[in-house]
Specification:
Blueprint: E1 2-6, H1 18-29, E2 33-38, E3 47-51, H2 61-73, E4 83-87, H3 88-91, H4 95-99, E5 105-108, H5 122-146, E6 149-152, H6 155-161, E7 170-172, E8 193-198, H7 209-219, E9 224-229, H8 235-242, E10 248-252, H9 256-263, E11 268-270, H10 277-280, H11 285-292, E12 296-298, H12 322-333, H13 339-349, H14 354-368
């Protein structure tokens, strides 16, 4: 299969590029010939990268990228490809180009639009958010009219986009993980319980509730250390609020190997994202990664924070403040066999392996060509 993939991800700079890199690896392993058009580059042998430039300013990033894509693909014989995969961001500005394609194409949506906080003023941010939403809705309506299939991240995500494209075949391709690269070795959690949060540190992710989790654990006499790795606009405030407690270790932004080293020794992965639409439809990479390292999961109970099973690893909270319930569950669990929790998480992680996800993705594409 010869695939043309037009992506809005700036691979190497965009934190969300893991999906593209992992799916590409699996596609190539299954014999796919891939041409990747993006502001970034995929670091895989066997990929033909066509890198385009963009104007890094909200409202112009996608439009400038689309203009460069049209130029870059102008002299290429597109009929040599079997199928095209197009990021929803480029569907509207490239619709004339898309409608002229002689090959089938699919839209891929790894998440609805989210407004950056760098644009000053609440009214201005709300205006930009509304424009982005209309842009997104129109992209899906165009896709229903002429795409062969759509790919989203979860069943809840699928339910939403079906409101704009009710007749288009849609498939959920969740975020996954590879098996742990480091040996999973955990201390006795009753001596010290090790918890970790790895990800963006900003308000919408509910990161301040991690402080409350620590307070609840202390009230129950649980010795613990919470490691926090990442960056974001609340990093300094969170670090200052927790300084001097002795229960927090701030690591800043870690490279991939540093994250692997950290997670190999952790008992619990923290998923503080609240039960709101943006997180309810998501498929967080860290959920799959925490499970692959045999970690229990704590946080609010909602579809974006869980997979559909009842493994011992899941200590999510369905009602009331999640940090109170999590502290209670953890304090009662650490004196018992923790090994079964670890085994449960690793077993469930197999459902989210990139190998399985990539194989399913390839099969869906092959049905079309």
């Amino acid at each position: 299969m010869r695939l043309l993939w037009i992506s809005g991800r700036t691979i190497g700079k965009d934190l969300a590029g893991t999906t593209e890199k992992s799916l590409t690896r699996e596609l190539i392993d299954h014999g796919c010939e891939l041409t990747f058009v993006s502001p970034g580059r995929l670091p895989h042998d066997g990929v033909t990268n066509i890198q385009v430039s963009t104007i890094n300013f909200p409202g112009l990033i996608t439009l400038s990228g689309a203009r460069q894509i049209r130029k870059s693909l102008g002299d290429i014989d597109l009929s040599k490809f079997d199928i095209a995969l197009i990021d929803w961001r480029y569907v509207l500005p490239l619709q004339k180009f898309i409608r002229s394609l002689r090959i089938p194409w699919c839209v891929i949506d790894r998440g609805p639009p989210a407004t950056s906080g760098i644009i000053g003023g609440k009214i201005r941010r709300e205006l930009l958010r509304n424009l982005q939403k209309k842009f997104w809705e129109r992209a899906w309506k165009i896709s229903e009219d002429c795409a062969s299939m759509g790919f989203v991240v979860s069943k809840n995500h699928e339910t939403i986009v079906r409101g704009f494209a009710p007749k288009l075949p849609i498939r959920a391709i969740p975020a996954g993980s590879y098996p742990a690269k480091k040996e999973v070795k955990k201390e006795d959690p009753s001596v010290i319980l090790r918890l970790a949060y790895v990800g963006r540190i900003d308000r919408k992710r509910g990161v301040y509730s991690i402080l409350q989790l620590s307070e609840e654990l202390k009230e129950r006499g649980v010795d613990h250390l919470i490691s926090i790795a990442g960056d974001g606009n609340l990093k300094n405030k969170l670090e200052k609020s927790s300084s001097g407690s002795g229960n927090f270790l701030f690591l800043g932004k870690l490279e991939e190997e540093g994250v692997e080293e950290l997670l190999a020794g952790q008992h619990v992965g923290i998923m503080p994202m609240p039960d709101i639409p943006v997180w309810r439809i998501s498929s967080p990479l860290k959920l799959a990664e925490y499970l692959s390292y045999g970690m229990a999961i704590v946080g609010p109970q909602h579809p974006g924070n869980a997979i559909d099973d009842d493994g011992e690893y899941s200590m999510l909270t369905s009602e009331g403040p999640w940090f109170e319930d999590a502290a209670e569950k953890l304090s009662s669990r650490i004196s018992r066999d923790w090994g079964s929790v670890t085994k449960s998480a690793i077993r469930s992680s197999e459902r989210l392996s990139w190998e399985n996800i990539g194989e399913s993705f390839m099969k869906e594409l092959e049905k079309i060509i």
